Amino acid sequence: MTAATRTLKLRYFASLREALGTDRESVTTAADTVGALRQQLIARSDAHADALALGKAVRAAVNQVMANDTHALADGDEVAFFPPVTGG
Question: Domain containing 66: what range?
Answer without folding.
Answer: 6-82
